[in-house]
Amino acid sequence: MSKILKSFLLILTILTILPVSAQYSSLPVIPEYHQIKSTSLASAFDTNMQKYDVVFQRLSFNVDPSIYYIKGAVDVNYKSFENLDSLVLNLSDSLNIDSIKQRGNMLNYSHQCGLINIDIQNISTGSLDSICIYYQGEPSRNNHAFFISVQDSINYIPVLATLSEPYGASDWWPCKNNLDDKIDSVDINITCPSNNIGVSLGLLTNSVSHGIETTYMWKHRFPVAPYLVSIAVSDYYEYHSYINTKNNDSILFLNYLYQDNLSQKEINIDKTELFVNIYDSLFINYPFKKEKYGHVEFPILGGMEHQTISSMGRFDFEIISHELAHQWFGDYLTCGSWEDLWLNEGFATYCTGLCYENYQDAYWYPFWKEVEVSKITADSTGTVLPVDTLDQSILFSSRLTYRKASYILHMIRWTIGDEDFFQSIRNYLNDTDLSFSFVRTPNLINHFEQQADTSLTEFMDDWFYGEGYPIYHVEWSQSENHQLLIELNQSSVLNDGRFFKLFVPIQLIGENDTLNLRLNNQYNQQQFIVDIPFVVDTVLFDPGLWLISKNSLVDLSVIQVMKDRIMVFPNPTYDFVNVISKQKIESIDVFNIEGRLVLTTSNLRINMSNFVKGVYYLKIKTKQHFLIKKLVKN
Ligand SMILES: [Zn+2]
Fold this sequence. Notes:
Elements: H1 8-21, E1 52-62, E2 70-80, E3 84-90, E4 96-102, E5 105-106, E6 109-112, E7 115-123, E8 128-137, E9 146-150, E10 158-162, E11 185-193, E12 197-199, E13 203-210, E14 213-220, E15 232-234, E16 237-244, E17 250-257, H2 262-269, H3 272-282, E18 293-297, E19 303-304, E20 310-312, H4 317-326, E21 334-335, H5 342-359, H6 364-376, H7 392-395, H8 398-416, H9 418-430, E22 438-439, H10 441-452, H11 457-463, E23 470-478, E24 483-492, E25 502-510, E26 514-521, E27 526-531, E28 536-541, E29 566-569, E30 576-581, E31 585-592, E32 597-601, E33 605-607, E34 614-622, E35 626-633
Parallel strand pairs: 1-11, 17-18, 18-20, 21-22
Antiparallel strand pairs: 1-2, 2-8, 3-7, 4-5, 4-8, 6-7, 9-10, 10-15, 11-14, 12-15, 13-14, 16-17, 19-20, 23-24, 24-27, 25-26, 25-28, 29-30, 30-33, 31-32, 31-34, 34-35
Zinc ion binds next to α4 and α5.
């Protein structure tokens, strides 16, 4: 989603981004999808809201994009979970209720503190009933959820649009504004001046002209969270086509565009078919294919993933792929708490990376990863778990909720492998307990853990609940028989003693050979010995950018064994100890702590598994001299 900017600083940022991102083929500037609203108010909550399920809502709006005003009639069909004699819904106090009716009868109600409390005819558990709320007024500006603007500064064509995420839906229509009850289906009727088109979710089933006004009638037959409902009204240009998928689906594709720069926008928009096919093949088929996908242009630079109709401030590779991905991650599966927003935004951000990987692998995918890691590591503090979901700079942190969250997914992929990673995501999307519903973080993590038969508890403690990232220092040397010793030294950027257990990607390069290693780094200063069939010239740390590490670059120190340097590892040891040296070793004497000789050998890999625990001394003799090394046997 995306937000209206308020601060001057942010406006400056956007102005600098605009000229670049307006061009599709330009550098992939990481977009400010989600400009931060300066203020926000969480919707009010009343436990009585949990006593019923919203089955259907018909939203009938009368609006004019040149006037900041809404007049609405909203039917609410509900099913009671228990005996019910009152119904509680959210609606901003800025709007005035004209009346509330049930089967033509006026109902008594109170409307204060963002809640409507309606006296309804008593119904028993499991019963269905409905009411209709008639209201009008200037919507609250607290959440910037409802706004009017113009298409451009030449023709001043008026635009009306909405963006409710996270708390703004009840600023313009009555609903249960929370994350635990999706409306099973909605009708949205938009009556507006006849030179406009009213755009919304699902299928346009009819448009009825009444002279100076026209009513556009949309039907959406999928469950939807209130924050994903939107309307947009303007004198739009319609660009319609079909998205053809490899599964032989033909998905209706509706686009409502401002009148300017149409040919360039159409070229960019046509890329949507490619992205749908990438997501279809990696995940599951587009969840709303029975209705449509589409875009509607609106006066915010970012985008917002309204269900089946993303609202767009511009059309470039990143924002089109991002908002489309939300249809799977955000709309079909919706975060069940704002604390779980990474399940929406981390996936949508990562999906842009997947589009680069599957479409422009050679250059743009590595570049995308480089930008992500450098932005993530630009600061070391803060968690992906938003510590205050009412503070929108925290909730919509591009560094944490978007980028670091996307890299959590990328690192899980690296940890469990491509096959289990994508299968886990398909399992998550196919989970019938979750489909078209709400998801929490453990829902996703459980699927990864089950599929890969592993635990991600410590990983999530480090990366989701924890702050910072590791900095690596890699030391290596190679013996004459090509045996390679690698020592991984890790420190936390925050110096908090945290150790990040990860598989560390190391690439070895020789004159004509390359070898990729995946070292299971479980503790600091861990040493690895690998038989390499060639002479290694260069050791690279994470060249494929799988990990979040300082600037994703190497804190790599290539230490050649000094001329007479002799290395003994691991130390302490449980069983084997290795001795390597650039010089030829003639023999090794092992002494116990009392100075008694317990072994003499010329073997450079000594089995000490039968030795008693304690301190030993190794006297290592070369042609020129000898060296004593202390060794601990555990
Ligand atoms: Zn997003």
